[in-house]
Write a structure and sequence with these properties.
The chain is an all-alpha fold and 66 residues long. The protein has one domain. Helix content is 48%, strand content 0%. It is built from 3 helices and no strands.
Amino acid sequence: MKKIECIACGEKNLSKNTIGINKKLLGTDIKNFYCMDCLADYLEITVDDLLEKIEEFKEEGCTLFS
């Protein structure tokens, strides 16, 4: 699998959940991804908010998350 890095800060090797939450919130066709910190800043929310949403999506059975 190709190593994906954050478009804003350059953090390398983003996790499957980080990639999943980017796709879920920004669209499945996106080509650039944010790390959790930069995505939270971009969306003007907290990382904890993102982690809660990931858990909700997992419970719903969303296949974007491990």
